[in-house]
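Human: I hope this is not a bother. Would you mind checking the protein record under this note? Thank you for your patience.
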Amino acid sequence: LQQLYVTVTRDGERVLDLPREAFTVRDDGEEQPLVTFEGGDIPLTALLLIDASKSMRGRRLVTALAGARAFLDRLASLDRAALWLFSDRLLHASPVTAFSAVLEAGLSQVRAEGGTALNDHLYLALHELGRHQGRRVVIVLSDGVDVASVLSMADVREAARRSDAMVYWIRTGRGASSVAFRSAWRDSEGYRKELEAFEQLVAASGGRVVPLAGLGEASEAFTSVLEEIREQYVLGYYPSRKRGDGTWHRIQVRVDRPGLDVRVREGYLDG
């Protein structure tokens, strides 16, 4: 069974009253009959990946963690989550659990330090979620400027395809268009391309970029992501051509209403 988590909006506002017959799903161009159709309030496994590099010292990290707690406090009884803080290494990693005390144990000892290895830690997060069933989500809070990773965003994109997890990016910086950073690893153009690749990964997963004007908006951003997930349509179908040979299947979901935008992952590996 392939399950698709679909967000439908009109002018940025979510549309929640569509019937089953409004949706058409195509798998590699072939229309697929739906066998399940549900609302989005079903269990999820979320991994919150928080940038704790030296640029997040002091009040910035405290505010970011308050945003993460706002998300965790609103999880349902059957949901599970993990909370990871990273810089150029993993500074804190809870197990995937439903218990908030376990998620937050040891957080008071974490200090923001070091550079940013976003690609490496996002890759690890996707690998971790690949061990779990059902709806899986990674929520990244970072400016996205990676100065320390071994892996490229192209490597991470392949991991995202294998995991089928949605990726949301709560962006603390201004995005690819305004990047002026350079290092021994990349010039500003190289960083711009990596940020664009991250944005493309997020879109391909069915998630979205949530820009922040300031970290004071972090709690609202985290809760808006959770609200969106809760209000998704969940469509299930059995692919008519299941080969099990590891090939890529392209998914298209259309809604027979004008003026609507549909967001869903771009496909899956037939493994």
Summary: The longest strand covers residues 2-10. The radius of gyration is 19 Å. The chain has six helices and 15 strands. The mean pLDDT is 93.
